[in-house]
Amino acid sequence: MGFVNTKDKKLEVGGHYQYQEDRLTDFGSKSIQEVELIEDNSNNEYYKLKLKDLDDGEIFEVEMAKGNFYYGGMPRIWDEGEYV
Known about the structure:
This protein has 84 residues and is mostly beta strands. The chain has strands at 16-20, 33-40, 46-53, 59-65, 76-79.
């Protein structure tokens, strides 16, 4: 299972994904949100995404570095249905 931060993956506006605001540890968020990508302003170095929570309709923006690394507190996004 790989979150998209570790890939140079093209996300699709209108696509559904799974989002986690922080890592799964005793100190981070344990919830995975089902989201829809409503805007993608990413560049070569960062994912800059506007997401809509499919449960409550909340719209929020996320910025995450691209690359083969992970830092504490970094948000993560997976393809829909990948994280079970």
